[in-house]
Amino acid sequence: MSEDENARLDDGSSQEQAGGSRRNQIVDVTLDERTVKRRHPDIEHERAVAIYDLLEDNRFAPFGDYQGPYRLHLRLEESRLVLDIASEDHQHLGSIGISISPFRRIVKDYFTVCESYFEAIKTASPSRIEAIDMGRRGLHDEGSELLLDRLKGKVDLDFDTARRLFTLLCVLHLRA
After folding, report:
1. Which residue did the predictor score with more confidence, 16 or 55?
2. 3-state secondary structure of 176
3. Dihedral through CA 154, CA 157, CA 162, CA 164, nearest 10?
4. Which pTM was predicted?
5. Which residues lie closer than 8 Å to 169 by C-beta, 6 or more apart?
6. What is the DSSP secondary-structure string of 5-45?
């Protein structure tokens, strides 16, 4: 936060600004558990961390005449990721659907690298683990950028929010 932003927050307008920023946030996120199989504990941990981090800090503002904060439900329907958006009081505001076809290669490669990473942390050298982790983060960033691009014009979100949503997309992709 810049000095000017801190000064504005310290001049008595902090309540208004803090409340205003909450308008463009997700306050609850759920996944459609009907489409996923039993997950490995490492994947379940990644899901839990992504949800926790997402709820702690995110920017999410669907285009249109919507009032947040928002509840988000993620599901896969046919070959689409669907984001069901509701108000804090559970009123359905709309849904956004995007094709998951462009994500298939990245998700497949990401899972392959994740498996290598989880195996490597058991026995590999620190330098090997770091190299695999760099590849894993690179694929994750690529998927996050693609998600930002696919949601452009539908919802305004930041890169960290896209990263966490990409993690959840990957979890949903583990379908039975």
Report:
1. 55
2. coil
3. -120
4. 0.81
5. 74, 81, 100, 103, 107, 143, 147
6. HHHHIIIIIHHHHHHHHHTTSEEEEEE-GGGB-PPPHHHHH
